[in-house]
Amino acid sequence: MAQPALHWYAGQDGTPLAYRETGTGRPLLLLHGLTGDGTMWLDSGQAHQFAASGFRVIMPDFRGHGASEKPHDPAAYPPDVLADDVLALIKHLELAGDDLPGDDLAGGYDLAGYSLGARIVVRSLVRGATPRRAVVAGQGMQQLLGTVGKAGTQLRRIFSGDDPPAGSPDARAAAWLRSRGADPVALLHVLDTLVPTTAEQITQIQVPVLVVVGTDDERGETADELAATLSDATLVRIPGDHAHAGASPELGTAMLDFLSGSG
Fold first, then answer.
1. Of the candidates 55, 63, 61, 42, which has an alpha carbon nearest to the alpha carbon of residue 110?
2. Of 225, 62, 61, whose CA–CA distance to 139 is shortest?
3. 179 by DSSP, 3-state: which?
4. Cα–Cα distance between 259 and 263 in angstroms, integer?
């Protein structure tokens, strides 16, 4: 199936950033994980699930990722810039109005993310995003309270120093990332933008939130704590580890149930 056309908008500092769209209906912003891009939602089939259920699915590529610009200047990566870029996209698409068709609840759009994308959902909420509903997938309380997670630690290890030994897991990971067009310099700068979210900030989030994690995902060990800290949360566990749960139809189904108001 052909990929949707690329569209462009200006990030919070004017950096050219890419996004794709499919479907029509209620806007749903989907945020991808570290080293990925918006096509993860298309490749898994989940974007098509959402589009077939009446959503206008919007999938940005974070700066430093995918088709978006990958500047090497550290000044292009201030703290929380990914969340600010999401807020810039919401403004660019004029999604925050109260007069959208079918908008019977507060917020003119829904916001969801997986892994790094989930962290940026939370940071976007903290920095002023007002979706109707939000999905935080593949993350627990421990990840939100910290800065760089397991994937980020591996990135620093394989790209910050000498080349990893040939044939090692780190060498294979580095080769795979480069084969996908990953830019090590940009990705390392992205890691420096990550900001912890305090428990107090999480308690102040008033938007209904779905917390969804894989049953074999170690990030799910503190998912119960996250759901209990949020003021209005639903916790769902789906089969799989971090990678497999993120690409599963069960994730799409859990999200659709929640976003449609039936879960």
1. 55
2. 225
3. helix
4. 8
Please report the pLDDT score of residue 172 as a whole number: 83
How many domains, the chain? 1
- Which tokens is 139 given? 């993350």
CA atoms of 255 and 236, how far apart (whole Å): 9
Buried b (16+ CB within 10 A) or exposed e, 202-212: beebebbbbbb
Phi/psi at 78 (5° precision): -70, 165
In the structure encoding, which two tokens stand for residue 244, read together? 């497999």
pTM of the model: 0.91
- Owning domain of residue 44: 6-147+193-259
Residue 158 has which token pair? Answer: 């394989």
**Residue carrying structure tokens 């139809």:** 249
Q: Is residue 13 part of a domain?
A: yes
> Distance (Å, rounded) from C-alpha 221 to C-alpha 175?
30
pLDDT tens-digit series, residues 20-54: 999 999 999 999 999 999 999 999 999 999 999 99
- Residues 6+ away with beta carbon under 8 Å from 91: none
Q: At 93, which amino acid appears? A: L
Q: What is the DSSP letter of 164?
A: P
Residue 107 lies in a domain: yes
